[in-house]
């Protein structure tokens, strides 16, 4: 069960022996090599249907197996990648690695979400790169959703439109917080809203927020996904509100590719009983 995944330390919350600080430049150089040297890998967190917990697909989440610092979470290197521009190469690696994995899942109804940065959307050929990768792995565009908290700043609108033109789906990540707001939604049409975990996890006083986001999604014809579901109570509350899909430690932690595949084929124990 999930406790087993936790105990094996494969959940992405394993200890991180890295202190962000003085050596960002070195880390930037190391990251450049890490992308080509195979030090990055992806975990897959199941996205499940509510209320039946059927696996609909997964969100790919990057990790860096650093030779001396150990496993590093994205917060420790994505900001560096964004500052140095390495994010463009990193996102291309993530895209191809994730689509390659998706191409091995025999159930063609499964979907895959990957995270991109706003910087990617300013690359003039980003949509072309995504189209090429989909073609390379023989993946139908509608099976891919690209997530970002901010998709609407200067120059990124055309990329979002081009991606959606391809049939790729675009999601506003962490919706309801920071950049991921109504302003963003009004600026650039998207396909999916991911309700930020702060609203999923909050107490009963926050229920109107989760309900309103769902209403908003429904009235705009968008999919709503609740993120960061950690408890049975949260899951049932969201299901009662009408959320049809969710992610969170309650259902499953981010899993190595092999364990996600086992979960799909039913050779592994089912998520949180
Ligand atoms: P995100 O896209 O909002 O991903 C959700 C984060 O919440 C993940 O953290 C996931 O492990 C964690 N999470 C999932 N369920 C739960 C839960 O029930 N409780 C709690 N407390 N946390 C939960 P992770 O993997 O550390 O990723 C953090 C952020 O890093 C992501 O937030 C995303 O913004 C960014 N990121 C991850 N992978 C990539 C990537 O490949 N490219 C880019 N550009 N950014 C990435
Ligand atoms: Mg995300
Ligand atoms: Mg999120
Ligand atoms: Mg986030």
Automatic annotation (TrEMBL):
It comes from the Bacteria. Residues 24-268 form the EAL domain. It comes from Paractinoplanes durhamensis. The chain holds residues 477 to 749 of 749 of the full protein. Signal peptide: none annotated. This is Diguanylate cyclase/phosphodiesterase. Keywords: Membrane, Transmembrane, Transmembrane helix.
């Amino acid at each position: 069960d999930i406790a087993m995944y936790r105990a094996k330390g494969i959940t992405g919350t394993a200890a991180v022996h890295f202190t962000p600080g003085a050596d960002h430049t070195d880390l930037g150089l190391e990251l450049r090599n890490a992308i080509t040297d195979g030090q990055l890998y992806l975990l897959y967190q199941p996205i499940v249907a509510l209320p039946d917990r059927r696996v609909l697909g997964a969100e790919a989440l990057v990790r860096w197996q650093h030779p001396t610092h150990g496993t590093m979470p994205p917060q420790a290197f994505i900001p560096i990648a964004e500052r140095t521009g390495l994010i463009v190469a990193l996102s291309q690696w993530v895209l191809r690695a994730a689509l390659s994995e998706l191409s091995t899942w025999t159930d063609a109804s499964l979907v895959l979400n990957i995270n991109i940065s706003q910087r990617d959307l300013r690359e003039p050929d980003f949509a072309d790169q995504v189209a090429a990768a989909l073609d390379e792995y023989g993946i139908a565009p509608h099976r891919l959703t690209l997530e970002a908290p901010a998709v609407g700043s200067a120059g990124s609108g055309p990329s979002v439109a081009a991606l959606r033109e391809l049939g790729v789906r675009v999601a506003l990540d962490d919706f309801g917080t920071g950049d991921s707001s109504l302003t963003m939604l009004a600026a650039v049409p998207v396909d999916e809203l991911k309700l930020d975990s702060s609203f999923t996890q909050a107490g009963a006083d926050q229920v109107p927020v989760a309900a309103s986001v769902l209403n908003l999604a429904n009235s705009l014809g968008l999919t709503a996904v609740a993120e960061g579901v950690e408890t049975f109570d949260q899951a049932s509350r969201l299901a009662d509100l009408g959320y049809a899909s969710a992610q969170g430690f309650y259902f499953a932690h981010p899993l190595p590719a092999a364990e996600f595949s086992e979960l799909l084929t039913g050779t592994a124990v089912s998520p949180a009983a």
